[in-house]
Description:
Elements: H1 10-19, H2 54-57, E1 67-74, H3 79-88, H4 96-117, E2 124-127, H5 139-144, E3 159-161, E4 179-181, E5 189-197, H6 201-212, E6 217-226, H7 235-240, H8 256-265
Parallel strand pairs: 1-6, 2-5, 5-6
Antiparallel strand pairs: 3-4
The chain binds zinc ion (2 copies).
Amino acid sequence: MRPSRATRTIGQWVAWLKSQNCTPSVTPAEVGVCSMCLGPTPIGPQGTHYARCFACNNGRYSTVLDGFVPICYSVNEGLEGAIWRAKNDDLNGWLQLPLASLLWTFLNNHLECIENAYGGKFDIGVTVPSSKERNGVNHLDALLSRIEKWPINWKQGVLVKNRNEPAAERRQRIVTDLFTADQSVNGKRVLLLDDTFTSGGSMASAAYALHEAGATSVVGIAFGRQLNASREEARELISELPQRPLDLDTCPVHDLSDIDLFFMRG
Length: 266
Ligand SMILES: [Zn+2]
Ligand SMILES: [Zn+2]
Protein backbone atom coordinates (compact mmCIF):
# COMPACT_ATOMS: atom_id res chain seq x y z
CA MET A 1 0.00 0.00 0.00
CA ARG A 2 1.54 3.27 -1.01
CA PRO A 3 1.40 6.28 1.30
CA SER A 4 -0.68 9.29 0.41
CA ARG A 5 1.75 11.29 -1.63
CA ALA A 6 0.55 14.76 -0.79
CA THR A 7 0.87 14.52 2.97
CA ARG A 8 4.14 12.70 3.48
CA THR A 9 7.13 14.56 4.81
CA ILE A 10 10.68 13.77 3.74
CA GLY A 11 11.23 11.85 6.99
CA GLN A 12 8.07 9.82 6.45
CA TRP A 13 9.08 8.95 2.91
CA VAL A 14 12.46 7.74 4.14
CA ALA A 15 10.76 5.67 6.84
CA TRP A 16 8.47 4.19 4.21
CA LEU A 17 11.41 3.31 1.97
CA LYS A 18 13.16 1.67 4.93
CA SER A 19 10.06 -0.41 5.59
CA GLN A 20 10.28 -1.81 2.05
CA ASN A 21 13.61 -3.52 2.92
CA CYS A 22 15.10 -2.53 -0.42
CA THR A 23 17.83 -0.20 0.82
CA PRO A 24 20.53 -2.25 2.60
CA SER A 25 23.29 -0.17 4.14
CA VAL A 26 26.86 0.16 2.94
CA THR A 27 29.68 -0.02 5.48
CA PRO A 28 32.87 2.04 5.35
CA ALA A 29 36.17 0.19 4.90
CA GLU A 30 34.58 -3.25 4.78
CA VAL A 31 36.78 -6.29 4.12
CA GLY A 32 35.87 -7.93 0.82
CA VAL A 33 34.56 -4.83 -0.93
CA CYS A 34 36.45 -2.48 -3.23
CA SER A 35 37.76 0.62 -1.46
CA MET A 36 36.81 2.75 -4.48
CA CYS A 37 33.42 1.51 -5.77
CA LEU A 38 32.25 -0.65 -2.83
CA GLY A 39 31.56 -3.61 -5.08
CA PRO A 40 32.64 -7.07 -3.91
CA THR A 41 36.20 -8.10 -4.69
CA PRO A 42 37.37 -11.65 -5.47
CA ILE A 43 39.78 -13.61 -3.31
CA GLY A 44 43.35 -13.47 -4.58
CA PRO A 45 46.08 -16.14 -4.56
CA GLN A 46 47.02 -15.20 -0.98
CA GLY A 47 43.57 -16.27 0.16
CA THR A 48 42.45 -12.77 1.05
CA HIS A 49 40.14 -10.39 -0.79
CA TYR A 50 41.68 -7.86 -3.13
CA ALA A 51 41.37 -4.32 -1.74
CA ARG A 52 40.11 -3.00 -5.08
CA CYS A 53 38.14 -4.55 -7.91
CA PHE A 54 39.65 -4.95 -11.36
CA ALA A 55 38.12 -1.83 -12.92
CA CYS A 56 39.23 0.40 -10.04
CA ASN A 57 42.55 -1.26 -9.41
CA ASN A 58 43.97 -0.79 -12.89
CA GLY A 59 43.47 2.95 -12.66
CA ARG A 60 40.67 3.41 -15.18
CA TYR A 61 37.98 4.84 -12.93
CA SER A 62 40.40 6.64 -10.65
CA THR A 63 41.65 8.65 -13.63
CA VAL A 64 38.28 10.43 -13.88
CA LEU A 65 36.57 9.93 -10.49
CA ASP A 66 38.12 11.24 -7.29
CA GLY A 67 35.72 9.08 -5.34
CA PHE A 68 32.42 7.30 -5.40
CA VAL A 69 29.79 7.22 -2.65
CA PRO A 70 26.73 4.95 -2.82
CA ILE A 71 23.84 5.58 -0.44
CA CYS A 72 23.03 1.88 -0.17
CA TYR A 73 23.30 -1.43 -2.00
CA SER A 74 20.83 -2.42 -4.68
CA VAL A 75 19.77 -5.75 -6.15
CA ASN A 76 17.36 -6.77 -8.90
CA GLU A 77 13.76 -6.38 -7.84
CA GLY A 78 14.94 -4.35 -4.86
CA LEU A 79 15.94 -0.72 -5.11
CA GLU A 80 16.75 -1.21 -8.80
CA GLY A 81 13.11 -2.13 -9.44
CA ALA A 82 11.85 0.98 -7.65
CA ILE A 83 14.21 3.20 -9.62
CA TRP A 84 13.21 1.54 -12.88
CA ARG A 85 9.51 2.11 -12.16
CA ALA A 86 10.10 5.73 -11.09
CA LYS A 87 11.89 6.29 -14.39
CA ASN A 88 9.83 4.31 -16.90
CA ASP A 89 6.34 3.84 -15.57
CA ASP A 90 4.03 6.86 -15.55
CA LEU A 91 1.81 5.30 -12.88
CA ASN A 92 4.80 4.96 -10.55
CA GLY A 93 6.31 8.40 -11.01
CA TRP A 94 5.43 9.04 -7.34
CA LEU A 95 8.40 6.79 -6.46
CA GLN A 96 10.53 9.86 -7.21
CA LEU A 97 9.29 11.21 -3.86
CA PRO A 98 10.84 8.56 -1.58
CA LEU A 99 13.99 8.49 -3.72
CA ALA A 100 14.40 12.28 -3.57
CA SER A 101 13.77 12.14 0.19
CA LEU A 102 16.45 9.46 0.58
CA LEU A 103 19.02 11.53 -1.31
CA TRP A 104 18.10 14.73 0.52
CA THR A 105 18.49 13.08 3.92
CA PHE A 106 21.76 11.42 2.95
CA LEU A 107 23.24 14.70 1.68
CA ASN A 108 22.10 16.61 4.74
CA ASN A 109 23.82 14.03 6.93
CA HIS A 110 26.95 13.41 4.86
CA LEU A 111 27.68 16.05 2.24
CA GLU A 112 30.27 17.60 4.54
CA CYS A 113 31.92 14.21 5.18
CA ILE A 114 32.17 13.66 1.42
CA GLU A 115 33.61 17.14 0.88
CA ASN A 116 36.11 16.63 3.71
CA ALA A 117 37.17 13.28 2.29
CA TYR A 118 37.55 14.44 -1.31
CA GLY A 119 39.23 17.81 -1.27
CA GLY A 120 36.67 20.45 -0.32
CA LYS A 121 33.33 21.98 -1.12
CA PHE A 122 31.52 21.15 -4.36
CA ASP A 123 30.63 24.06 -6.62
CA ILE A 124 27.77 22.25 -8.36
CA GLY A 125 25.94 18.96 -8.61
CA VAL A 126 25.02 17.45 -11.99
CA THR A 127 23.12 14.35 -13.09
CA VAL A 128 24.02 11.56 -15.49
CA PRO A 129 21.35 11.51 -18.25
CA SER A 130 19.73 8.12 -18.74
CA SER A 131 19.18 6.26 -21.98
CA LYS A 132 15.50 6.94 -21.87
CA GLU A 133 14.33 10.51 -21.52
CA ARG A 134 10.63 11.24 -21.57
CA ASN A 135 9.53 14.57 -23.03
CA GLY A 136 13.19 15.57 -23.13
CA VAL A 137 13.40 15.52 -19.33
CA ASN A 138 16.23 13.69 -17.64
CA HIS A 139 14.50 11.61 -14.97
CA LEU A 140 17.07 12.47 -12.29
CA ASP A 141 16.60 16.20 -12.90
CA ALA A 142 12.84 15.63 -12.59
CA LEU A 143 13.41 13.72 -9.35
CA LEU A 144 15.56 16.54 -7.92
CA SER A 145 12.86 19.10 -8.71
CA ARG A 146 10.55 17.26 -6.27
CA ILE A 147 12.35 18.99 -3.37
CA GLU A 148 12.88 22.71 -3.34
CA LYS A 149 15.90 23.28 -1.12
CA TRP A 150 19.01 21.11 -1.39
CA PRO A 151 22.31 21.40 0.49
CA ILE A 152 24.05 21.50 -2.92
CA ASN A 153 23.48 23.62 -6.02
CA TRP A 154 22.12 21.21 -8.66
CA LYS A 155 22.45 22.42 -12.23
CA GLN A 156 20.18 20.79 -14.80
CA GLY A 157 21.08 19.71 -18.31
CA VAL A 158 24.86 20.00 -17.98
CA LEU A 159 25.55 16.58 -19.49
CA VAL A 160 24.10 15.44 -22.80
CA LYS A 161 24.12 11.80 -23.81
CA ASN A 162 25.26 11.54 -27.40
CA ARG A 163 23.67 8.20 -28.21
CA ASN A 164 21.95 5.26 -26.60
CA GLU A 165 24.38 2.48 -26.11
CA PRO A 166 23.52 -0.89 -24.61
CA ALA A 167 25.01 -1.17 -21.15
CA ALA A 168 26.80 -4.37 -22.11
CA GLU A 169 28.93 -2.48 -24.61
CA ARG A 170 30.35 -0.13 -22.02
CA ARG A 171 30.90 -2.58 -19.21
CA GLN A 172 33.74 -1.46 -17.00
CA ARG A 173 35.18 0.98 -19.46
CA ILE A 174 35.23 4.69 -20.16
CA VAL A 175 33.54 5.63 -23.45
CA THR A 176 35.10 8.99 -24.26
CA ASP A 177 32.38 10.25 -26.62
CA LEU A 178 29.28 8.91 -24.84
CA PHE A 179 28.54 12.23 -23.06
CA THR A 180 29.28 15.90 -23.67
CA ALA A 181 29.32 18.47 -20.86
CA ASP A 182 28.76 22.19 -21.26
CA GLN A 183 31.39 24.74 -20.26
CA SER A 184 29.61 25.74 -17.04
CA VAL A 185 31.69 23.10 -15.23
CA ASN A 186 34.99 24.69 -16.24
CA GLY A 187 37.13 25.12 -13.12
CA LYS A 188 34.43 23.59 -10.93
CA ARG A 189 34.35 20.83 -8.35
CA VAL A 190 31.43 18.58 -9.29
CA LEU A 191 29.26 16.06 -7.46
CA LEU A 192 27.94 13.66 -10.11
CA LEU A 193 24.65 11.85 -9.42
CA ASP A 194 23.53 8.66 -11.15
CA ASP A 195 20.71 6.38 -10.06
CA THR A 196 22.68 3.15 -9.84
CA PHE A 197 26.31 2.18 -10.23
CA THR A 198 26.50 -1.24 -11.88
CA SER A 199 29.66 -1.66 -13.94
CA GLY A 200 30.55 1.98 -13.34
CA GLY A 201 31.12 2.57 -17.05
CA SER A 202 28.32 5.09 -17.40
CA MET A 203 29.37 7.20 -14.42
CA ALA A 204 33.04 7.07 -15.41
CA SER A 205 32.20 8.08 -19.00
CA ALA A 206 30.16 11.03 -17.67
CA ALA A 207 33.04 12.01 -15.39
CA TYR A 208 35.38 11.89 -18.38
CA ALA A 209 33.15 14.37 -20.24
CA LEU A 210 33.06 16.70 -17.22
CA HIS A 211 36.87 16.75 -17.10
CA GLU A 212 37.00 17.40 -20.87
CA ALA A 213 34.84 20.48 -20.20
CA GLY A 214 37.28 21.65 -17.53
CA ALA A 215 35.92 20.28 -14.25
CA THR A 216 38.73 20.15 -11.71
CA SER A 217 37.30 17.35 -9.58
CA VAL A 218 34.44 14.84 -9.93
CA VAL A 219 33.03 12.68 -7.13
CA GLY A 220 30.24 10.24 -7.97
CA ILE A 221 27.18 9.50 -5.88
CA ALA A 222 24.43 6.94 -6.58
CA PHE A 223 21.31 5.73 -4.85
CA GLY A 224 22.40 2.13 -5.22
CA ARG A 225 25.62 0.24 -5.66
CA GLN A 226 24.13 -2.54 -7.80
CA LEU A 227 25.20 -6.11 -6.96
CA ASN A 228 24.99 -8.85 -9.54
CA ALA A 229 23.88 -12.20 -8.08
CA SER A 230 25.44 -14.09 -10.97
CA ARG A 231 28.90 -12.94 -9.89
CA GLU A 232 30.42 -15.43 -7.48
CA GLU A 233 32.18 -12.79 -5.37
CA ALA A 234 28.86 -10.95 -4.84
CA ARG A 235 26.91 -13.84 -3.36
CA GLU A 236 28.12 -13.64 0.22
CA LEU A 237 27.46 -9.91 0.42
CA ILE A 238 24.02 -10.29 -1.18
CA SER A 239 23.12 -13.01 1.33
CA GLU A 240 23.91 -10.58 4.18
CA LEU A 241 21.82 -7.70 2.85
CA PRO A 242 18.55 -8.64 4.60
CA GLN A 243 20.37 -8.12 7.93
CA ARG A 244 21.60 -4.67 6.90
CA PRO A 245 18.75 -2.17 7.16
CA LEU A 246 19.32 1.32 5.84
CA ASP A 247 21.52 3.30 8.20
CA LEU A 248 21.60 6.95 7.20
CA ASP A 249 23.90 7.83 10.10
CA THR A 250 26.76 5.96 8.43
CA CYS A 251 28.31 6.64 5.05
CA PRO A 252 31.18 5.09 3.13
CA VAL A 253 33.48 8.01 3.87
CA HIS A 254 32.72 8.19 7.57
CA ASP A 255 35.71 7.41 9.73
CA LEU A 256 36.89 8.45 13.16
CA SER A 257 38.24 11.79 11.95
CA ASP A 258 34.79 12.56 10.50
CA ILE A 259 33.21 11.76 13.84
CA ASP A 260 35.66 14.07 15.61
CA LEU A 261 34.76 16.85 13.19
CA PHE A 262 31.10 16.19 13.80
CA PHE A 263 31.46 16.64 17.54
CA MET A 264 33.61 19.73 17.08
CA ARG A 265 30.98 21.32 14.90
CA GLY A 266 28.19 20.28 17.26
ZN1 LIG B 1 35.93 -1.01 -7.55
ZN1 LIG C 1 29.25 10.62 6.68
